[in-house]
Every structure is written in structure tokens, then in C-alpha cells.
Queue: 3 jobs
Job 1
Amino acid sequence: MNQPITLRTALKSYPHTLPLKRGEITDPRVSLECVEIEPIHRAFAPMARQQEFDVSEMAIVTYLQAKAYDKPLVLLPTVVAARLQQGCIVYNAKRGPMSVADLAGARVGVRAYSQTTGMWVRGILANTYGVDLEQIRWITFEGSHLLEYRDPPFVSPAAADQKMLDMLLAGELDAAIFGNDLPDVDGIEPLIVNPAEADQQWYGQHQLVPPNHVVVMRRDIAGQHPDAVRAVYDMLRRGKEAAPATRPANRLPTGIEAMRKPLMLTLDFCHQQKLLPRRLDIEEIFADSKAFLGDSAN
């Protein structure tokens, strides 16, 4: 019997990935050597730039940029992290009231302009609230995960020693977008009124939860071991089936058809925000998935 191929793997511990990381869900074709990286976004640049891991979670914007710049990665069509986003843009209420209508000319911090959470928040601001994104002074604290990408001219980096929350508290930023690091600090309030209710209205209109993270594999590994692609994809699917049910049920889609609508909206928002060097076609995105996974990709 052939020995399983060992795959160096970077995945965050979610209810649906923990069974894979603990060895509770296995496949005879592969062995996952899991590397713990916290926060998980620290794995994205090494994977996008140098293909540091054999399998890795990756922000969806990072993957799309990697695809546009011809990085040798293969998308597994499954979302491993997603959330409704309208509570992620906050302001310092101790410095006075602020609303979406006050964003023109405002200084708004975001970890990186290409951060996926930032992309979703900006897309919602522009398309739901009519905000002109180029009238905002975007302040960033990191560059893109892809070295080839350059931020648009209306984006400026903060000084190397500055921190986003400190600047927000000091009034050096008018608002800021946070992800998993959303601060629990007195006076820091959501910019969008009743964000949970606003999110439900947005979900009612679009019938999807904005995807944040997908999973990719190195193309050379996929080419040499196509069975490993199918094995990892199947394990990820089984992990979701074994995990407690998510709400809404379509929050973490798996398969090309389930991912098609959220990915098309992602591509639209990326194009609007000048995040990609060229417009990507949805079939181009799914070509590798179909080639390696066949009918199981649907």
C-alpha cells in the first residue's frame, strides 16, 4: 500500500477544522502536518509569495490577487471563515458623534487596503450606503500579501511605529475597520447604526454571508499528487458535516455552485476598489477546481 503524502498545513482552529487537525477525520492518501499560526493571516503572505505550505487557509482577496499575478496555487472551493461585516467599522464616540454621512474626507484606518474585511466593509459602504470610497483618506498599517500589488493613490501608510487603535483613541483617525481584533474598549462604537439589524437586511437582499477565507494548495503538489487534492477537499467537507450546524446554513459554502454567487460579488467589489490588476473571470477562478476535483467540485 502506498504511504500517504505528508502535507504541511496551516489552518485556523474552527469547529469544522479541529477534527482534521486532531486526526479525528483522516484519509489514507494524506497526512496533515499542521502548523499553528496565530493570527492565521500571518500565513497568507508566505503562502502567496513563496508557497510556504503545502495546504493553507487564505483570505479570498489574497487568493484572487495571487491568481491575477499567476502564483502557482490551486483553489479548493470551500469557505472556512465568513461573517456579516457591518459591525467591523467603528469610531471613537468619546470624540463626538459620527455617521456614514461623515465619511467624506475622513481618515479611516484599515490593517491593509487589500484586507478582505476591509474590502467587504468598503463594498457595503459604497453599494449599500452610496459612499464615495475615493473621498476617504485610507490609512494602512501593512502592505498587501502580494508584493506586486500597489495601493491606489488615495491610500497612505501610517508611520511604522503607529498602531491603529491608539490612533483612533487619540483622534488621529476618525474611524477604523477591524476584523477578528475588533476592540472591546469603552467609547469605541459601530459607525453603522444597529449593525446586526443592518447585516440582516443586507443578508435578506443578497442571500449570502461575505466569505473571508478559503483554502489553497501548492500547484506542484497538486500536479504530482492529484489524489491529495481530492483527499484534502473531502476532509474539509467532512469536517463541516461533523461540526455543529452554522447559521445561516449557507454561511460556509462548499462546492463551485454554492460559491459562485458570493465569489462573483467578491470579484465585483475587488474590481470597484482597484484591488486586482485585471478583471478575473469566474470560470477562470474555478478552472483548477474542476480539473483536479471533477464532479466532486460541484
Job 2
Amino acid sequence: MTEPHLEIASDAGTLADVIARRFESRLASIQAERTPRVLLTGGTIANAVYRLLREDAVDWVDVDFWFGDERYVPANLPDRNDGQARDAFLTRVGATRVHSVTDNDCSLSASEAAALYATSLPDEPFDVALFGVGPDGHVASLFPGFPQLAITDTGAAAVFDSPKPPPVRVTLTYPALNRSRAVWFLVSGADKTHAVARALAPAGSVDETPARGVHGLEETCWFLDEAAASQL
């Protein structure tokens, strides 16, 4: 488990630009040797980062993308993380190696969709895994006090009663999330202040703050704006 490193920017816009340039540089460096494996997240700051990514900075066709969680709704609804990522950058840069959770077309239950998605996960660790953090400290769709926090025998699980709408989701579990060489948390805004402070406090529980349970194998970095970092 790596100790967290903090990078703090003055505001959300500056933070998004810092992350975008760092992300491009990291993927280009990995591509000098092989195809990068990336875990994407949803959320406001992540989508701001995605919109800043440049088409010529990386060979985007040669990047494999997965998602840390997904809202289990039909493909045409704007709730889905993969749809937001496609709108923000995947389509624009021509990415083709995108591994999405199947949409809810009523042919599979959420549990079946989670089991299917688990089979798509790479055998090797993710190179870079991006995460947001909710005001309650949740990460992916692992929520405080929920039974999915204790799952150790599969890489993905269904969530049926998310406290944030929509209620049905598919999330990667800790065994999958923690198979990441670099974990980057992307967090902005004063509403995240207490969650960030709890996640980075010397003591605390994963049950209360699930983000405490995710660490990179080689690197754990928290990218914060000053508002989100104000209680550190």
C-alpha cells in the first residue's frame, strides 16, 4: 500500500488542466512500451478533465479503457458514465478499445451484468485508475455501510439501493480497484472537504469512508483544489 501524495491547485479549472496534462504524459510514456490500461470515473471534475484532453497527445486507439462503476440504466440515458465519457472525449479522440458495462435492456439482471463485466477486466493491473469521491466518502459505487465493501471474491458487484440516483448500479469491488499501479483521486469543491479530510486522516474506517480503502500498487495521488483541501 502506497502513502498518498497530495497535489493542490487553486481552483477546479486549474486542477482539471493539471490532471489532463499529467494524464496525457503518463499514457504517452506507457505507450512507448505497451498498450496502457486505464480505469475511468464519472463526475464533474473528471468530465472537465476529459474535455481538455488533446487528440494528438496520445495514440488513443492504443489505450484500453474500463469504468470503475456504471449506472445500470438504458444506453440512451445521460446518467451513464460511459456515455458521458464518450461525449467528453472518447468519441472525439477516436478511442475504440472501450470496455463498458452492458446497458439495462432488460436482458440481464444487474447481478448478471456485474458478473459479465468482471470477466472483461484485465489480467494485469490497471496502469492509471481515476476516482472521484462523494461528499459521503463513497468511491466508485461503494457506499458507506453497504455490503459491497466486504466483497473479496469477485471484481464487480451489483448495487440495488444506491443513496444517489439512479439506485441500480454495477461497481468494481476493492479487489479490482486495488489492482492499479497508479490511483488518482480527482476531487474539487467545498462539499467534498469533510470526505477528503476523513479519507486522509491517520485513523478512520473504510465502512464510514470507503475512499480510504483504495490505494495504488505504486502510486496514490490526490489531486485537489483548495476548497476540497481546506481541512487538511
Job 3
Amino acid sequence: MIRVAPISTTAASYAVETWHYSRVMPRSPAQAFGVWEDDDYIGAVIFGRGAAPNLGRAYGVGRFECVELVRVALTAHRAPVSQIIPPTVKLLAASSPSLRAVFSFADPAHGHHGGIYQAMNWTYLGTTAAARGWRQRSTGKLLHQRVVTTSGVVRQFDRWVKAVTPAECDLVELPPKHRYALGLDRGMRRALDRLACPYPPACGRGLEGETPDVPSGGVGSIPADRSQ
């Protein structure tokens, strides 16, 4: 049995830093929802403003009428991800009636093609422009630009955490990301449907082609209190 409820930034950060492949909490989450399976805390689904301030402009959506699904940070679970996200979207829409759309991006550089969004019948809107990123030499991992700084530290909320310096990395060309959207009202759904593209094929492995191997960390590792 799956239950979802709003959680604090502390609880959301725990899920991201323990179970998400990026290990990086978004700087300004709009809303975070905890997920419990049979009373065990299994992670968080987090929505935010994303990196692009004009995320929905091309689709006729204002800055405060859309959000980005920025993290799905889950440990081992039985329920499909495509059954975990919808109830969090329902809670989000109920708490923010002005929202009209949710966007999300699947990154082929991490073996993602958007399988969970396809399973949830989200609209595929094509790809973003190609970009450049950092690959850490010692691990071979692609790193988010926010964790690569010349100072070697980065501020996350109210604390400073260790970062990686550019000298430890190589600049690499990154493939375009896949863009998906979910309309939250009839007019928005119709507008997005007119722009829909055929779904891309799978490009990697993982749960529904989207969630990579889960990092270590047991379920229920933090209290199930929804306020924590």
C-alpha cells in the first residue's frame, strides 16, 4: 500500500542524498512529498521551479502556473514508479489551484528516455538543445553543474557542502534531454496534445527505463512522521 504526504526539506534532502543518483537536492523546491509503502518511508517526489525561469513560456504557461518534477528519489520498492507519482501530483494540484502544467526531463546521458512518463501518459514535447557538462575523472560520473565550483564548496540551503573543482573534471558534450509535460486542466491538456511528438524508444536500463540502480540505504531509515 502506497501513501504520500507533504514532508519537510530535511526529510526530502535525506531521500535525495541517500537514494537519488545525483545526490544533490534542488536549491528551491516548491513542494516535496514523502512516499510510504506499508508504513516504511521509501523516498520522496519533489517539485520545483527548475533551472529554467521561463519553463512554460513556449507553451503559454506563466512562471507561477507550472512546476518541474525535479527529483524522484526512492529506495527499493514494489509499486511501479508510475503509480507513485500520480497521487503526489494530485496533492500538488489541490494545494496550488493556479498550476496548469507539470514538466519533467529525462536525461539520455544517464540512460533515461522517460519510461515512467510514457507509462503515465504524459505528453512528449521533443528534446532540449544539446549542452556541455562535467565528467569527474576519478569516478567517470557526470556531475550537475551546481556541484562543480572553483572554490570546492557549494551552499545548499543553510549549510556549505563539499563540491568538485573544474580541475578534477573534463568538459563533455551532453545529448539533448527529453521533455515531457502533464496538463492539469482540460485547456492545457488540449494545448499540449497539439504539440505532442511520438515517444522516444528506450535507451538504457532501469525500472521502467527511468530509475537507475538504487544506492544503498534501507527503507524506513528516518521517522515515518510526515512532519519530519
